[in-house]
Design brief:
six-stranded mixed β-sheet, about 280 residues, five-stranded mixed β-sheet, 2 domains, single chain, 1 helix, 14 strands, mainly beta, about 70% strand, flat
């Protein structure tokens, strides 16, 4: 098979729900946030967050930007996302899955058979009939019972009667049979075993669209944006965009400048609209 690559097509927005399998090499996430009232100072405590959405902007294989969206409805421990008394919340994910799908058109050529021939070989095989005979044996069981009688005893004070018992057992047997199969009347038989074999091929080609998956590490993230969805007292749903704290957002980097490509920190403040707290 021959493949000629024509062009790449990146599949736009990638939305991934938290979860899935993980390995030690996969990126993971620690996201923290602060939910504030419209004045930008008063914390909104004990507030349920329906969804937390974090969008990662990376470059695809052609160098163009593409968004990878991660959505969370739990805090990482399987519990709802709820702010504490200071309006703060935290989400942890053991797997981040910074991946996106892309398509590639490939000109694929395969050899297709146009001529077939049948080839046969002689096979000798021993063939037997199945015969049945009865296999029999004695199936015995024992039944026991107490046989009792009165006996008279005497001494210088007089006589008395006592009941004396003795266990008596009887064995009974019956013949049991079951059928047993075995090979009999064996003989050798000869027959032909044939196979169709391709003797001539031609090359056929066509365009195919195939989908591949590419992965990114956290140090390849260009920017992020966070948003939360929460409700007011009437259960109306609001989306609140995050104001990113740049000093607390990014890969886990040490003082030596080396970054852990497996851990991403995200920190944002979310200022609620006025109707949310009325």
């Amino acid at each position: 098979m021959r493949i000629d690559i024509s062009r790449f097509v990146t599949i736009g927005l990638v939305l991934l729900l938290a979860g899935g399998c993980m390995t030690n090499d996969e990126p993971r996430l620690i996201a923290t946030g602060e939910l504030l009232a419209a004045d930008g100072h008063t914390p909104l405590g004990d507030k349920v967050i329906d969804r937390y959405v974090l969008t990662f902007s990376v470059l695809d294989n052609a160098g163009d930007p593409i968004d990878i969206v991660r959505e969370f409805i739990h805090d990482g421990r399987g519990k709802p996302i709820v702010t504490n008394g200071d309006g703060q919340f935290e989400i942890r994910s053991a797997t981040l899955e910074l991946s996106f799908d892309w398509e590639r058109d490939e000109y694929v050529c395969d050899d297709v058979c146009v001529t077939w021939d049948t080839f046969c070989t002689e096979v000798n095989e021993e063939v037997c009939d199945v015969c049945t005979e009865q296999d029999c044996w004695d199936d015995c069981s024992e039944s026991c019972y107490d046989e009792c009688w009165d006996e008279e005893y005497c001494d210088e004070d007089g006589c008395w009667t006592e009941t004396v018992c003795e266990e008596v057992c009887d064995e009974s047997c019956q013949t049991v049979c079951e059928p047993v199969d075995y090979d009999c009347n064996c003989r050798w038989e000869t027959y032909e075993e044939c196979d169709d074999v391709c003797t001539e091929t031609t090359e056929e080609c066509d365009w195919l669209t195939r989908t591949y998956t590419s992965y990114r590490s956290v140090d390849e993230v260009k920017k992020t944006k966070a948003a939360v969805w929460t409700r007011d007292k009437t259960r109306r749903l609001y989306m609140i965009g995050g104001e990113q704290n740049e000093d607390a957002t990014g890969p886990d980097c040490g003082e030596d400048g080396q970054c852990d490509q497996r851990l991403w920190f995200q920190n944002d403040r979310f200022v609620a609209p006025t109707p949310l707290v009325e």
